Please model this.
Amino acid sequence: MAILIYDLPRGCAWGFFCDARRWMHLTPMSAKFMTGQVVRLERGGRWTFEPQAPMPAVAERRLRDKVLRKRAVIEEAWVRNLIARGWLRLEWSGSRAELVVHPETENERRVLLPKREAARRGQPLDLHLEIENAALVTRVTQNGRVVAQRRPLADLLWPDRPEGERL
Model:
């Protein structure tokens, strides 16, 4: 469970936890009066803000503003959750690498990695997902040395993020 937003409205903490919803969402963790409310944050690999039930307009506006300000933090936490649950995998298709989101479900989505991710300058040794930094790590040899290069997975999974919000 990750709690990401506090006191919107007062006394309510928002976060996500593992359940049947495999799409990025927030749900109240501590407010009885908002029990069952869910705000969907992702649809088909694109960012969205969709309350799944009516909520007061003021609360919705404040929550939307806070979520947009914390978008990078929320996405990074969700990527960690995806990796930990096995909902994000790295697969090879010939010589190209793909990220598979929600594998073997009706919501499966594949993101083809640019060739530069699969083989940056140097001889590629390894390509893997790193949960601690929510990153794609490419290990290559450069000038006889092994170098690890990291790229935030959120940048690959949600390409609609405005340039100023990139990690």
